[in-house]
Amino acid sequence: MKITVLTVNLHKGFGFFNRRFILHELREAVRAVSADVVFLQEVLGEHELHATRIPSWPRTPHYEFLADSLWSDFAYGRNAVYPQGHHGNALLSKFAITHHTNHDVSIEGPERRGMLHSVLRLADGRPLHAICVHLGLRESHRQRQVQRLCQLIDGIPGDEPVIVAGDFNDWRQRAHHMLSRCAGLAEVFVKAYGAAARTFPARLPLLALDRIYVRGATVQHPIVLPRRPWSHLSDHAPLAAEISL
């Protein structure tokens, strides 16, 4: 069974330098990929101030606005809460989401980070575990968060496929070895090309911050997405792949 996955950091629906609200353009770009499962980071669930100031602000939470009629199921994990609202990770799925849990992996300090674990029911009835992550900016925080991810995956039966995708902020690329050793995860682009895809900054990618890891997948094919319009829609370039389960 083949499925297409996409991961993208939405930058809260604003373009580079936060100058323009571009969620409607992002929705069209995400829809154009037509992925079966979409992993989203920095998704605004609510922002009362923006809602009163921006005429095109959706009446529904951003993840629901993006799902529209193309993705029947969606899940949201709230990570950061502030007076005006909150944001976090989200998952859009063409398969039924049987249940989901948001794991708070924040360490000390103001950074709020999470891992959204959703269990999908595939067309053949098998479960698929989809974990959307957004890890910290500090190396010491990321190491502890990767360990938490390993513990989470260790509790998933070995015969059930797992996809982990999102913004790892792992600019030193130390997570590959840790996740391979402790969780049996393989990164799609590393396996195909020998190196992770560079995704940040989107207009001139230098750092490989975003990843798609799999376990229990027999074949993985990275999908090359066009530079436009993505280079002007977020500070992160998206990643997509076709995965055989």
TrEMBL record:
GO MF annotation terms: catalytic activity
InterPro entries: Endo/exonu/phosph_ase_sf, Endo/exonuclease/phosphatase, GPI-anchor_lipid_remodeler
Gene3D superfamilies associated with the record: Endonuclease/exonuclease/phosphatase (3.60.10.10)
Gene Ontology terms describing biological process: GPI anchor biosynthetic process
Domain Endonuclease/exonuclease/phosphatase: 25-236
GO cellular component, one term: membrane
Designated name of the protein: Endonuclease/exonuclease/phosphatase domain-containing protein
